[in-house]
Amino acid sequence: MDAPKEIFLKDYKKPDYYFDTVDLKFSLGEEKTIVGSKITVSPRVEGSSPLVLDGRDLKLLSVREDDYHLDSRHLTLPSLPSGTFTLEIVTEIYPQKNTSLEGLYKTSGNFCTQCEAEGFRKITFYQDRPDIMAKYRCYIEADKSLYPVLLSNGNLVDQGELEGGKHFSLWEDPFKKPCYLFALVAGQLESRDDIFVTRSGRKVSLRIWTPAQDVPKTAHAMYSLKAAMKWDEDVFGLEYDLDLFNIVAVPDFNMGAMENKSLNIFNSKLVLASPETASDADYAAILGVIGHESHVSTVLIRIELVLTFGCHSVQYFHNWTGNRVTCRDWFQLSLKEGLTVFRDQEFSSDMGSRTVKRIADVMKLRNYQFPQDAGPMAHPVRPHSYIKGAEVVRMYKTLLGSQGFRKGMDLYFKRHDEQAVTCEDFFAAMRDANDADFANFLLWYSQAGTPVVKVMSFYNPEARTFSLKFSQEVPPTPGQPVKEPMFIPVALGLLDSTGEDIPLSSVYHDGKLESVAINDKPVYGTVLRVTKKDEEFVFSNIPERPIPSLLRGYSAPIRLESDLADSDLFFLLAHDSDEFNRWEAGQVLARKVMLSLVADIQQNKQLVLDPKFVHGLRSILSDSSLDKEFIAKAITLPGEGEIMDIMEVADPDAVHAVRTLIRKQLAHELKEELLTTVKNNRSSEEYEFNHPNMARRALKNIALAYLGSLEDGELTELALHEYRSATNMTDQFAALAALAQTPGKTRDDVLADFYNKWQHDFLVVNKWFALQAMSDIPGNVENVRNLLNHPAFDLRNPNKVYSLIGGFCGSPVNFHAKDGSGYRFLGEIVLQLDKLNPQVASRMVSAFSRWRRYDETRQSHAKAQLEKIISANGLSENVYEIASKSLAA
């Protein structure tokens, strides 16, 4: 196919016409749906420019203007009345045939929409761009027996009966919105109802809609929604602005959730939960995504990430950061997504353990964003970075403090309510509200790649000074070979020989002495502003050589390389007052150990695990003063993908062999401690979703996962006991994962038992698919091929694709198999998927994007698949863009 035209930020032009009001009329039918639109149009400037409307897969029935031109992508009206006028269009669409799940489509017998980013053009002809904001009214009519519930945005203003067994509803949204926030749902649904009383005393009706049998599983979702509404009032002073808030759960959805104004549509996996069928991670994801890992092993970490694929932000919080203030164009997507993901992270941190949440967020950043930053799909935070975008917002808060950040948010809403704005507008609000100098901070929005910051330290005992020399570099990325230095906030503390933080009063930097004291009192941690390629900071009155705790709380999304010795890292692991950095010290040590052993295995040397590393993990495991979920995170090794990401030439086989060896040796050396951990953290009490119980289960199950790596009959019986006696999905699935590590009859039997028990719950079956797909069992590609034919699998369902196909791509040793079998499998699936759902297919083909990081044999296999994909007839633009960029890298 011909390469689609690439669009750049510099191409943005203001629209020639604005839309003031939009009246939509839907007549829903079994074979076809008729859509009428009545739009009030105002020219931005008087003139004779044509009005160009977007449209895809539409049948035009009528348009009020006689002079028009129609092609496969646009409806162009060249001759228009002067001044404000009304445009009326009627189209015919076929939701039953819409497998792309964009626009209006059918799912499990119900009508549903997904309009972000460009789905509205599949409903009617429109200026499908986010800077066209209008007030909407939506009239829906349908057969009442088939579709008793008719929902859209805003408030319900009328409803009634019609002839022929039909009925109607009329919805009105008093706030302006772009068309990507339009939503419609119609079907046989029932709701869980509740009331939220705002801080000003208004009563808001809350409803969560699902099929009748799933309503009992929505209690946690309702709790999460009310908690999010209360938190947003308390922390940001933001009150919900309508009388009704609806959530609908659907099983067929490309994304995790969609923040349509007052009618959020959610992937079922992020709404439905019961202790028997949902894990702690599921409950936490629902809390986050509606208000938007504690896992037993790396396998389970990868499973939960796969099963929440596409879920990036707390949907309720979008009501203000995304809906009331939206993005001017899609290059500003991080403006709403990065800000809302950050708000979700803060909400989830306040609901549980802030340290554990921070660790989980940084793991996602490293597992997904950093590899992308280093590959052919590298891009700046603008246009579309969710996770890294949240890190940019976090840096504002780190620099300004909580009060300063709130002042910036208040000014942002005051200036831009009901506007479509840019990242620069948010930056200006933060700067102006605090009279702050952010130097080159805006480079975070325009420069791609992950900055690498190197730190060297020097202590002068005579002068009692401690110096930190920073140097930074942003690696070249496609289209950006040369980079400017970034604005990097480095939060730090200095530890004395007893592990206590040393008081700090001032720092000498850039030729002047700067006070870091607060109210003339020394502080025990501060934030340095690293803005140049090379610079030095000197602390005075430091009584002994300290050990620096750098980048506390992960204060900037960078790769940090320091001159800390292993002994320093072990000291930080044991004593740092910043718990994130305690975890990070252990991770740095683990990465060093793993990379060293990978080098040994490549040189055919004997593999010997450093006993000091074993001792360090034993100390963490045995420290009863630590949060149990933190311990679970701290004793979890870095994943294979993370290690390969920092190798010059990735070696999946060597990394897998090393990680397997370390896990088994740790399990052997710490066997008694791990057994005690399992025993002491069992509970027969009724399931509760709260931090103490989540932490207890997380620690027990990571211990069980380690023990499961040992091929020991007694330990197999232990895992079987945990599986059979489990009273909740968290514990049962953790035991299943432990047993599934080793091929054989026990594994086969327990997998069959699990499926037989849960075969009627599609969300649990998706976990079952993912566990098998991610297995590191040799030659697993054939098992996954067989599962494609399983009666519970459906290639048209995104969740099942993410579980089975996405899960398989999450097994480096099998996906990157040297014989190319994993690549061939994915290539075949991408071409099949592209005919059904290009958006999902484009996500799957992204697994090829870093093919040049591997050896020549693997490169040859991957390249062949990419060439096959881009040469296919009728390939979608979505897949072509990613495959062609990957191939050209």
Automatic annotation (TrEMBL):
Cofactor(s) the protein requires to work: Zn(2+)
Family of the protein in this entry: Belongs to the peptidase M1 family.
Domain Peptidase M1 membrane alanine aminopeptidase: 222-293, 316-441
Peptidase M1 alanyl aminopeptidase Ig-like fold domain location: 449-562
Protein name, entry field: Peptidase M1, alanyl aminopeptidase
Pfam families recorded: DUF3458, DUF3458_C, Peptidase_M1, Peptidase_M1_N
GO biological processes: proteolysis
Domain Aminopeptidase N-like N-terminal as annotated: residue spans: 65-181
Domain Peptidase M1 alanyl aminopeptidase C-terminal: 566-888
Annotated NCBIfam families: pepN_proteo
Source taxonomy: Eukaryota, Viridiplantae, Streptophyta, Embryophyta, Tracheophyta
InterPro entries, A to Z: Aminopeptidase_N-like_N, Aminopeptidase_N-like_N_sf, PepN_Ig-like_sf, Peptidase_M1_dom, Peptidase_M1_pepN, Peptidase_M1_pepN_C, Peptidase_M1_pepN_C_sf, Peptidase_M1_pepN_Ig-like
GO cellular component: chloroplast
Gene3D superfamilies: 2.60.40.1840, 3.30.2010.30, Neutral Protease Domain 2 (1.10.390.10), Peptidase M1, alanyl aminopeptidase, C-terminal domain (1.25.50.10), tricorn interacting facor f3 domain (2.60.40.1730)
GO molecular function terms attached to this record: aminopeptidase activity; metallopeptidase activity; zinc ion binding
Keywords for the protein's UniProt record, in alphabetical order: Aminopeptidase, Hydrolase, Metal-binding, Metalloprotease, Protease, Zinc
